[in-house]
Write a structure and sequence with these properties.
Layout (H helix, E strand, L loop, with lengths): L7 H11 L1 H9 L1 H4 L7 H8 L9 H8 L3 H9 L1 H5 L3
Helix pairs in contact: 1-2, 1-6, 5-6
Length: 86
Amino acid sequence: MSSDRTSDLAILLGHAMQCEPCRDRLLTEPDRVVVGRKITNEQRARLAQLSPEDFESAVILAAAVGLDVNELREGQNHPRARMRHF
């Protein structure tokens, strides 16, 4: 992946780490949350397997979805992650 673009997955998870209502929606309706986002089938499958415990730290969450922890942190700091709810 190019380093000049933060992935939709990282932005989605970055927001979910900061917003409990959106995290709950991601955990209960992952297929609806990813509509219109550039997320692979493998990433969709990993999102469907997430549990509340996976959100205890960035390291745990990154491992659960197969992201580099630095990319997840970029997603947390991305302006879209701070502004958009699911």
